[in-house]
Amino acid sequence: xxxxxxxxxxxxxxxxxxxxxxxxxxxxxxxxxxxxxxxxxxxxxxxxxxxxxxxxxxxxxxxxxxxxxxxxxxxxxxxxxxxxxxxxxxxxxxxxxxxxxxxxxxxxxxxxxxxxxxxxxxxxxxxxxxxxxxxxxxxxxxxxxxxxxxxxxxxxxxxxxxxxxxxxxxxxxxxxxxxxxxxxxxxxxxxxxxxxxxxxxxxxxxxxxxxxxxxxxxxxxxxxxxxxxxxxxxxxxxxxxxxxxxxxxxxxxxxxxxxxxxxxxxxxxxxxxxxxxxxxxxxxxxxxxxxxxxxxxxxxxxxxxxxxxxxxxxxxxxxxxxxxxxxxxxxxxxxxxxxxxxxxxxxxxxxxxxxxxxxxxxxxxxxxxxxxxxxxxxxxxxxxxxxxxxxxxxxxxxxxxxxxxxxxxxxxxxxxxxxxxxxxxxxxxxxxxxxxxxxxxxxxxxxxxxxxxxxxxxxxxxxxxxxxxxxxxxxxxxxxxxxxxxxxxxxxxxxxxxxxxxxxxxxxxxxxxxxxxxxxxxxxxxxxxxxxxxxxxxxxxxxxxxxxxxxxxxxxxxxxxxxxxxxxxxxxxxxxxxxxxxxxxxxxxxxxxxxxxxxxxxxxxxxxxxxxxxxxxxxxxxxxxxxxxxxxx
Length: 633
Prior knowledge:
The chain is α/β, with parallel strands linked by helices. Helices cover 37% and strands 13% of the residues. It has helices at 2-5, 19-23, 30-45, 52-65, 90-112, 130-141, 159-175, 185-196, 207-220, 241-253, 300-308, 322-335, 383-389, 396-409, 452-461, 499-510, 524-538, 551-554, 604-608, 620-632, and strands spanning 224-230, 258-263, 275-279, 312-316, 340-343, 365-369, 374-379, 433-439, 466-470, 486-491, 514-519, 544-545, 568-569, 580-581, 585-590, 593-599. Strands 2-1-3-4-7-6-5 form a 7-stranded mixed beta sheet, sandwiched between helices. Strands 9-8-10-11-16-15-12 form a 7-stranded mixed beta sheet, with helices on both faces. β10, α16 and β11 (514-519) form a beta-alpha-beta unit. α5 (90-112) runs antiparallel to α6. Mean pLDDT is 90; it is low at 114-118, 120-128 and 284-292.
């Protein structure tokens, strides 16, 4: 029906039952046309074939309708009659930008359907063509949300504002923008709408106005799940990879998710998102192989902080571009010397976290991780190219893979909405006393989760005027300083110690020191090896379950300074409803004092608080309470 109603000029009117159509059969306008194309895109995504001529005619219509200033008006000239509202204004310009993305996406996909993965087809990059760029420039220059920019007709009709905001939000989301005209448009739209909602829940007592307002709020508050690194104005051959991935994922999960572009440079902001995406073919001039660094020098510190603070990086290498892969690996391993190259095996969570990826369709992936989780993924096959082409049906497993990586980066779930309140922690009061704490060196990754002790200290300082002073890791090959209050043995590799090292550890404990041991993410083999180590020092019978009424568990020591941790929660990989349970701790008692605490579940990764699907430990709040009890005790 929609294709039959398209006029030969490429636009749509009000349909055959409309009085306007009976009076002016050739009537078309930009407003009706954008809704027709929204519906046709839904049909196209559902697998219904829309004739190619429909898209080509529509693209020509919107191209002709665009004004010289880059904006769009309401209507072209019809049958020699003057057009209605032809000058540029906010609603139709925002609609024009959002609609042109639909058209350019669709036409680019048609051009690319028969191209090889690494072949750049003619017309690629059309989604960043002049019509869209000029339209975005118009919106930047004329940005308003309290009224429709440059709109002088029927200005008293308040409902038209919500229609404009709906179009503006769509345009910003399609382009992956965080700001329009130096404004956080999503936040401003939400604030305005919430102020104007009536006590009965409506906007203007109108079903239509309320619908537009709710559509805006739903989009504006959706989580941003991926940042795409953009090199200036260069977009390369895959400009719509993340846009199509998030559009597919929104449908698959039944809730809107968004992407945003981040420009390279010192002002780049990676905050509020857990996954950074780099397409080496898109940013090739800025992220070259060879001697230059893969990430611009003025972004290196931000990139390092982003990864250290729990972020994940996804990199699309050019197909068969082994030089880039090796260059990026070398760069990352130099930037993070405690990380190592990982093999992404068939049991890795990205192949089955939410969507089950068939073995036959799994692309090549190289990983870099820290023992707890993979921090950086490098796609060596052309996954981003299939996302960009919008091949939802032919390569659905690649979109499923992208969805799994997004969920993996978020620790198995979605980040909070883009407007979620992110409170900066208050500055703790001055510290009057420090407790010395150090990691215990061994033959494995003892320094895993390097921010754990610092964040544990921040938690402590907000409760008591006591701080943690993290010392350099202690090598048990030599005598251990008894003035160190606590040694922390953690990691993912089962620990091994020589007889001399075990003797020095025993001397430290008998002199009054305390040893906390945990498998960083809860591996059973680490826990078993640690148990054997303690048995070698004190005998197996001396390592016993810590009673639940022990002061270290109840918090009733030093005047009740500790926390009651008799009921704690474990992380659940498939569920968010972790039921309270008793902590599974073992101890060695020396001279009526708990000198060794061995946890069967992970503490370190949870204490650090970064997302980690592989972690089977206590939830962050409970892990910190348990660890602080040991420290204070």
